[in-house]
Amino acid sequence: MKAAILNKTRSDLIVDEVTLPKELLFGQVLVKIKYSGICGSQINEIDAAKGVDKYLPHLLGHEGSGIVEKIGSGVSKVKIGDHVVLHWRPGSGIEAPPAKYLWRGRKLNSGRVTTFSEKSIVSENRLTVIPKNFNLREAPLFGCAIPTAFGVINNDAKVKIGQSVLIFGIGGVGLNIAQAAKMVSANPIIGVDVNKKKLNMGKKFGLTHDLLSGKNIKKKILNIVGFSGADVCIDTTGIPNVIETAYDLTHKDGKTILVGVPSKKIKIYSLPLHFKKILKGSHGGSAVPDLEIPRYINLIKRKKMSLKNLITHQFKLDQINSAIKLLRSGNSGRIIIKMS
Ligand SMILES: NC(=O)c1ccc[n+]([C@@H]2O[C@H](COP(=O)([O-])OP(=O)(O)OC[C@H]3O[C@@H](n4cnc5c(N)ncnc54)[C@H](O)[C@@H]3O)[C@@H](O)[C@H]2O)c1
Ligand SMILES: [Zn+2]
To answer: How far apart are CA 245 and CA 159, in angstroms?
Structure first.
């Protein structure tokens, strides 16, 4: 089967034939991937933002949809033919070891879930069954973008009706944070981005105010939320000075939530943390996939939530490097890879 491989940090992925192991181990599931999303986290992985990558060469991708083709011993959560979402946050079921693939005669590493391939061996607890009539092209968004964004609002920030929410970075995750903030009646919901197109999209997803990043941004925001700052400030950029600005603009009793992964240290005045101010890094919105994905599907069915217009581009697996280039340019919403 074909897969996209990260062989060297900060370089293009290699799309090539890969050999699957002959047998599935306890708790492993073979999934035929239909669609995969590309998250900002894969850009970080390619760039080794968290430090030297000791797993090279390896597979990647952490939000996808597909159909179960084969199950290993012990697996009871899914059966052959089920439609599934592949997600990186663990849910119920067995935590199986990552599969060992072969590429050009060498060992090829993977995590417990990877999605940039025609087939993938996934740990049972990284799968959630979805109804067969649910759109498989939109389902990858349940693997990361949606549960992270909705979880940031619901689980990490626990936003209350009428609280002010400020979001830096209106990309795949930021757009959905805006959508979730609107659903819990936050107000105002302010989005800041370097790209006007993103802000225009954000307005359709719930932003009450949109601001281009630049000079006087702090003053402009305080003019909207008042001098004490915003109740909840969320960073999805991972850029140190943006994180510092988000922290500074947070009310003394408010919360700063970090979603973007920084590659450098940040500098903050920590005294307010001794009182009521909270600074928290999000881990996938602390999402519980088994509980939350069915709720989102229900909301979509009842037209209370929408995934429409979140996906702006679709590529084939062979074109994945062009897709990554487009994501880096900032000129896309979520990009989907369609497997053949
Ligand atoms: N903590 C977690 O569990 C978790 C989960 C998912 C994603 N992430 C991280 O979140 C980040 C965002 O992911 P994404 O998929 O939304 O990426 P994305 O590329 O779609 O979005 C990033 C957005 O930030 C904007 N931006 C860039 N520089 C900016 C600046 N100086 N000021 C304001 N906006 C700026 C870009 O224009 C873009 O719209 C990534 O770092 C990713 O690794 C973390
Ligand atoms: Zn992600």
So the answer is: 20
